[in-house]
Amino acid sequence: MRDYLLMLLVTAAVTLLLTGPVRKFAISIGAMPEIRARDVHREPTPRLGGVAMFGGLLAGYLVASHLPHLEEIFAQSSTPRALLSGAALIWLLGVLDDKWGVDSLIKLGGQVIAAGVMAFQGLTILWLPVPGTDGIYLSDGQGTLLTVALIVVTINAVNFVDGLDGLAAGTVGIAATAFFLYGYRLWYGYGIEAAASTTLFSAILAGMCLGFLVHNSHPARIFMGDSGSMLLGLLIAGCAVSVTGEVDPSLLKQSVDGSSGSAAMVPVYIPLLLPLSVIALPVADLVLAVVRRTWNGMSPFAADKGHLHHRLLQLGHSHRRAVLLMYFWSALFSFGIVAFSARGAKSWILYGVAFVCGVGLLLLLQPRYGSGLTLRRKRPEPPTTPSRTPDRRIHANTGPRNG
Fold first, then answer.
1. Distance, CA of 165 to CA of 94 (rounded, Å)
2. Measured distance CA(271)–CA(341) in Å, rounded
3. Model pLDDT for residues 96-131, shown as the tens digit of each residue
4. Which of 35, 138, 223, 277 has the least C-beta neighbours within 10 A?
5. What is the pLDDT of residue 10?
6. CA gap 271, 107 in Å, rounded
7. Strand 136-137 to 127-128 pairing
8. Contact 334, 274 (CB under 8 A)
9. What is the rounded distance in angstroms from the CA atom of residue 182 to the CA atom of residue 197?
10. pTM
11. H helices then E strands: how many in the chain?
């Protein structure tokens, strides 16, 4: 655990220290687009925050490759090399888009190429958990297509949710922490060495998000841009693919839970449920955006102001409160799934999650009622009838009447 903590702190520190110079560089080259109709900020803010995040990624990668307990991962697995090469390609594409703008179809093609490069180097989904079986193994072609599709969808989901200060970085940071806990439990708790890559890169990803949040929290001094959001999406998808691509489902079932029946299949489902729970909100936002734009006769890639975070603001939430609510739901989904995968009685976990969901719904609806009360309090009162009492200031200088 000390090695991972050191790697996380180094990644966060490098990202934090690089963000300031990157902000000045972005301002000097004019990487400050004008405010659009769908934006919620009021002043032009520099982008290219992904440059600092990529620097933190390289620092964490370098430190991990020289730590005695982690250097074996780089020698025995091709996942670190595949993730780094795909991250470099998607980061370069994002930098070009932040500075000059890239057509949406060209950007989609670049995302497919980056995902294909990762799959070509062996980072692919090899099996899927299916009820009634121990998992169905996929062919090379099926695994590659499914891997590319998952990576591309996750990249765009994280890109879509990047609409408020600190929202994307915080959401992905929560997801990375959940992945780290699950991967660390598989590796050190049950001796499944194939989960080492997921544990490694989820710790690096959490450090990147933590370091960047210092500059990106509301009010943000710099935005991550597509160079950062697409990078985060690719890395979180890579963590998910590495679990289903390197961990044997039969070994996972045998090592994590020795029970029989449906309960024994829970650990096998977690590698699929955890990625879905982590990106549940961004994917839901992505699907709703595509349906909404297509229904209105717009291009699915056209920008609008109907995302989930925009709707939270329309309900009456403040900027910071809307972000915290999105954090709440992301943490509830991801950590709830991780807790459910642990041994022991799981009924109390379900009851706890249901209770927390109820609390979250109350917090979600509170601003609507609060704003109504505020309006009623601020309603102007009807004008009062003018007093018939003579103004005493008129007779202020008159003395008492004689006689």
1. 19
2. 10
3. 999 988 998 999 999 999 999 999 998 998 887 666
4. 35
5. 96
6. 29
7. antiparallel
8. yes
9. 12
10. 0.80
11. 16, 2
